[in-house]
Amino acid sequence: MSEFETVIGLEVHVELLTKTKLFCGCSTAFGTEPNTQVCPVCLALPGGALPLLNKSAVEYTIKAALALNCKVALQIAFDRKNYFYADLPKGFQISQFFYPMGTDGFVELHINGETKIIGIRQLHLEEDTGKLSHFGGIISSSYSRVDFNRAGVPLMEIVSTPDLRSAEEARLFLQKLRTILCYLGISDCKMEEGSMRCDANISLRPVGCSELGNKTELKNMNSFRSVFRGIEYEVERQRDVLLSGGSVIPETRHWDEAKGLTRAMRSKFVSADYRCFPDPNIHPNPVPQKWIEEIRNTIPELPDARYRRFIEEYSLPAYDAEVLTAVKEMADFYDSVLSCYNEPKAVSNWIMSELLGLLNEAGVEIGESKIKPQPLGKLLQMVGEHKISGKMAKIVFAEMFATGVDPAQIIEKNGLCQISDEDILSQIIGTVLSNNPKSVEDYRSGKKKALGFLVGQIMQETKGQANPQMVNALLQNKLDS
Amino acid sequence: MHINKLTAQELAAAINKKNISLEDLAAAVSCRCGAAAEKFNAFINFDPAIIDRDIIRIAGMLQNGEETSLSGVPYALADNVCTAAIKTTCASRMLASYQFPFEATAAQRLKENGALLTGKTNMDEFAMSASGENSCFGAVKNPWDGKHTAGSGAAAAVAYGAVTFALEQDRCGELRQSASYCGALGLKPTYGRVSRSGLVEFAPSLEQIGIIAMKTVDLAAVLAIISGPDPLDPTSSDADVPAYTGLLHKKAKPIKVAVPESWRETAYLEEAIKNVFITKLQEMEEDIFQVETISMPYFRYAPVTAAIISAVEAFSSLSNYDGVRFGFRETGKHLQEMYRQTRTEGFGSALKQFLTFGAMISSGKFYHDYFLKAQKMRTLIKQELEECLGEYDLVVVPTTPFRAPTLKNGYKECLLPDPAASYTAAANLAGMPALTFPILMQDETGGINTTGLHFLAKPWDEAILLQAALSLEKTNPVAFPELRR
């Protein structure tokens, strides 16, 4: 099986969450009527194409560079990448070819408790293109339409080193990138809406060989799942080619989600010469160290730091820490719950089983749900103090999740509070014992099973609200006396 | 009425005080511009209604009590400077019916100052050169002699006295060459002095909007208005804009001038130009100028350097002419064919040669051999000029190696490098201001008798160029051509 080693590098594009485009004041809002967010600059009309750089986009890119442990470029400079295509208004894309904003960074992956470092070769800022709609298929259509709303939206490209060794690692890497960028609040990284896109360079080589084999570039993977499936397929395909004595043709391939296979699109390495040169309209600007430090100060605790803190400070298992830190809002939520009920493992258990279960079922994100940290803390505190049973708490929690009402109110309204009052419990136990003399006799003559029956009777009597530990203790006490 | 006898300031004062009526102004300007259009092909799509519309606008300003500094002063825009009032064709079939939705910043500032827009002037396609022959609207004839080129319609219109001034792009010296061919003053300001917003892009690192006029005071008045920072052009500078007109009244100080030793070694240098230049240098010595010849070894490489850089930038900057969003489109069976047909039919042959050259020298290994070397040479030329201008106030050379060439009645080949740019291209490479001063040649040899002295100053020092020109004006008075055709 392991005669070949898989080598994967990813090129990831994410749209930045700036309000306006990279070089003009047009809105970047998604899903509006075609060609309503355009102007002479982003349409490249003659006489109107002077680019005015959006400072927030640069700031976001520097933020990402710092978060991905990159060296930040000493200057902001842009280049022209020249090629013709109908979705590219200027006939060139303004990109950062010579001075990428960040270089030589890395990301940590946690794989089965081990930490693996994946390099970030570079990270740069560029403009997005428009969008083409082909009527009747990309090859057979007789005409196409272009929507330029997306043209000029700031796009950050992140290029990994070829350090990934499986489809699973590629998926984990991509998810990690999404986690970090979402923590920074600079992109929403929605693969389905195209605000995060991923191309994979894939090759195989004999184990122990240091040279890289011929690679293919895989495109059109529109979800994390299809990144995994697409790469899995392509790796198998290349393995079959190599095992049958063939050689892999270096080319761009298209992942067909419906058919579950990859198809050749066009031959690579005969592709265009982009003639990149510095954009004469955008003069290079130095990046002040002070500005970098200001940006660094706005970076929140990042997932890896948080992961380590959760393990060290809260003694959580690695798995819990990984799950809880995967989404910033979830980690924030967890921290907030702990601030009112400091039982890390109990809270983690509850979130991972109960909360995540309900969120998945309802298909909502933690930020959109009605559950707030303080009420959950209160509920778990009541469980901890045996004021309410775990079983009851689940019922209360379901209602909190659906309505957002405070747990105390729900408990009071439904009379769900646990009976922990010794006097009340003694009275009920007395009644049950006197109503069931046979069982008492059985127990005292050695049939220990009778105890279960008596507990059941007590719980029935209290509609399940009796504190089970106290019932056990009091009952034993009475029976043994 | 002889509008061209008045300076811009005098004419504006007469209009503001109603000593000249707007009706008379409109009639005189329409007549003169109409003649420039008809005789020299100076305008593209000339239409007197454009003047009438702008007269109504100016009348409104006057009614509101706005007495502006260029009130009623007639001017023209080269057809690659956009205005919302008229089409912007760039003298190209590609944009023959193109209408830009906004005003170029320079045009907007003139409009706010009451200047009278007369129309768009003819030029080589996309102002790629000053041959005067590569326009899809036909050649531009020289007002001094219709058998010769005017370089551009803007220069012809100004020299003919149809307008007080004109704005035009200067990329490798086209504005200065045309002004020199027509016996007019031409000023290319420092890169960043005048906003490029609304100027159709060709070679963005070199080009700047400049002014053609017949009198130094008019250059000064217009420069003061169109200069200054513009939020729409990030390369425009917030450097101080001096009150140029006021500066001219100051007493002239001696001006130190350097002549690059290599000026005689220029290809195609006409004997007559050589002689008149030497004579003028001697005359200057008697004036406030101190002239010295110095060694400037890189200066002569400016035209080839500028040709390479501008061709690469133009090839890229003109990639938006693909027939998809605006302008001319030829149909094709598929996208690639549509591009090919559109650009084949839409662009003229000289421009296509130039763009092909740009595409070639920016690809593969040529990128290093030509484009990168040109970038390095640009830095050397700039450093050399900076060094020289640290010691001298001005550098002086002839404006062009030859007088206005004769028209060939057909598209000219694209010359690489363009010999007409031999002396002018360095200013664009270095981003420095430069001015051509018109010289009438005494010894008539059958050709037309105008040429130019070309001065180059350090960045932001347009004032010294204007002072030099004002001084020369005393011994070389303004001359308008008498038509000999």
Helix content of chain A: 40-55%
Tell me the total number of β-strands of chain A: 16
- Low-pLDDT runs of chain B: none
Gross morphology of chain B: globular
Q: pLDDT below 50 for ≥5 consecutive residues: which ranges of chain A?
A: none
What name does the CATH topology of chain B carry?
Answer: Amidase signature (AS) enzymes
For the largest beta sheet of chain A, what order do the strands appear in spatially? 2-6-7-10-1-11-12-13-14
Beta-strand level of the residues of chain B, as a percent range?
5-15%
CATH architecture of chain B: Alpha-Beta Complex
What structural class results from the helix and strand content of chain B? Answer: alpha/beta
Number of domains of chain B: 1
Tally the helices of chain A.
15
Q: By helix and strand content of chain A, what is the structural category?
A: alpha+beta
The main β sheet of chain A shows up as: 9 strands, mixed
- CATH level-1 class of chain B: Alpha Beta
The run of helices and strands of chain B is: HHEHEHEEEHEHEEHHEHEHHHHEHEEH
Characterization of this structure:
- The complex is a heterodimer of chains A (481) and B (485).
- By secondary structure, chain A is an alpha+beta fold.
- Chain A has helices at residues 55-67, 167-184, 224-243, 289-297, 303-314, 318-325, 328-340, 344-362, 373-384, 390-403, 407-414, 422-435, 437-444, 450-461, 468-480, and strands spanning 4-15, 71-72, 75-76, 79-82, 92-95, 102-111, 114-127, 131-134, 144-147, 154-160, 196-206, 216-221, 251-256, 261-267, 277-278, 285-286.
- Chain A has three domains: 13-198 and 271-293, no CATH class; 301-414, no CATH class; 422-480, Arc Repressor Mutant, subunit A, CATH 1.10.10.
- Chain A is built from 15 helices and 16 strands.
- The mean pLDDT of chain A is 90.
- Chain B has one domain (1-485): Amidase signature (AS) enzymes (Alpha-Beta Complex).
- Chain B is 38% helix and 14% strand.
- Chain B contains 15 helices and 13 strands.
- Chain B has helices spanning 8-16, 22-40, 48-63, 105-112, 153-159, 174-182, 216-226, 244-247, 271-286, 302-317, 335-346, 349-361, 366-391, 425-430, 462-475; strands spanning 43-44, 74-78, 116-121, 141-142, 145-149, 165-170, 185-188, 208-213, 255-260, 289-294, 394-398, 434-440, 450-456.
- In chain B, helix 9 links the parallel strand 9 and strand 10 (289-294).
- Chain B is globular.
- The chains are: A alpha+beta (481), B alpha/beta (485).
- The A-B interface holds A 40, 43-53, 80, 82, 84-86, 89-92, 144, 146, 148, 273, 275, 277, 280-283 and B 80, 82, 88, 90, 95, 98, 100-102, 104, 196-201, 203-205, 231-235, 312-313, 315-316, 318-322, 324-327, 335, 339, 359, 362-364, 367, 371.
